[in-house]
Amino acid sequence: EVQLVESGGGLVQPGGSLKLSCAASGFTFSGSAMHWVRQAPGKGLEWLGRIRTETNTYATAYAASVKDRFIISRDDSKNTAYLHMDSLKTGDTAVYYCARAYLDSAAFLLVWGQGTPVTVSS
Amino acid sequence: QMTQSPSSLSASVGDRVTITCRASQGISIYLAWYQQKPGKVPNLLIYAASTLQSGVPSRFSGSGSGTDFTLTITSLQPEDVATYYCQHYHSVPFAFGPGTKVDFK
User: Fold this and answer.
1) What is the dihedral angle through the alpha carbons of B17, B22, B27, B33, rounded to the nearest 10 degrees?
2) Which residues of A28-55 are buried (b: 16+ CB within 10 A; e: fewer)?
3) Model confidence over A52-105: pLDDT tens digits?
4) B49 near B68, Cβ under 8 Å?
5) Chain A contacts of B89, Cβ < 8 Å?
6) Is a pLDDT exceeding 90 seen at residue A44?
7) B89 touches chain A (CB under 8 A)
8) Is the pLDDT of residue B101 over 90?
9) Does B98 contact chain A (CB < 8 Å)?
10) Is-contact B42 A112, C-beta < 8 A?
C-alpha cells in the first residue's frame, strides 16, 4: 500500500524552529519528487515547495512566502522527506501535508499524507 | 497566480456544475484539479487539464489550456459536497487556486 506518514508537528513559540518528517512506503521513494503543502485553519491549500530526485540533483524550489525560512531535504536511504522550518510566525499555523508527485517532471500530487498540525503561538 | 470562480456555489442533486480556474500567465495544460471533502485529505481528480485520474467517476471532466480552465460535474451527487482546487505545475513556484466550495441548496 502506498503511504505517506507525516510527523513532528506540535506547538512552537513564534521565532522557533520545527522539523517535520514524511515517511514513505509502498513505492520507489528515491524515484519520486516530494512536495510539501499546508492548509491554515479554514483556509485553502498553499504549495510550499518540493525536492526532486537524485537524477535531478535533489533540486529544491519554494514558495515566496517561505523561501529563506523553510528548507526541504530528503534521505533516500530512510525513505523520508523533511521540512525544516525556522523563524516561525503565527501565520505558519496550519496542517502540513507531504505529497508525492506523479513524476519528477509532472508535479501533480498523486498521493498525500494525512497531515501533521503545527501551531505557532506564545 | 491562480484564481477560481465562483468561490462557492449551491446546487441541487443532478445539476450540472461548472468551476472556472484562471492562470495569470499561460501554463499550457499543466493543470490539476483536486477535491477535498470536509475533514479529509485532498484527492486528485484530473491532471493535464483533462485527463481523469483512475477511479474518479466519469461525471467529472476538465477542459482548457493556456490560461482558462474548467472543471465540470455533469450530474451533482451528494458525495460531491467538497471544496475543489486547481493547481498549476507548469514551472516553479507551483500554486493552488483559492478553492471553490460546493454544497447543496
Assistant:
1) -30
2) ebeebbbbbbbbeeeebbbbbbbbbbee
3) 999 999 999 999 999 999 999 999 999 999 999 999 999 999 999 999 999 888
4) no
5) 106-108
6) yes
7) yes
8) yes
9) yes
10) yes
Task: Find, in chain A, the residue whose alpha carbon is nearest to that of B45.
Answer: A110
Q: Spell out which residues of chain B touch residue A61, defining contact as CB-CB under 8 Å.
A: 92-93
The grid coordinates of residue B55 equal 477511479
Cβ within 8 Å of B, A 45-104? 45-47, 49-50, 61-64, 97, 102
Task: Pick the residue of A100, A108, A116 with the most B CBs within 10 A to test the interface with B by mutation.
Answer: A108
pLDDT digits (tens, 9 = 90+) for B34-90: 999 999 999 999 999 999 999 999 999 999 999 999 999 999 999 999 999 999 999
Band (pLDDT 50/70/90 cuts) for residue A18 is: very high
Q: How far apart are CA B47 and CA A70, in angstroms?
A: 28
User: Do the Cβ atoms of A47 and B36 come within 8 Å?
Assistant: no
Across the interface, whether the CB atoms of B87 and A61 are under 8 A apart is answered: no
Residue A88 grid cell: 516561525
Cβ atoms of A3 and A70 within 8 Å: the answer is no
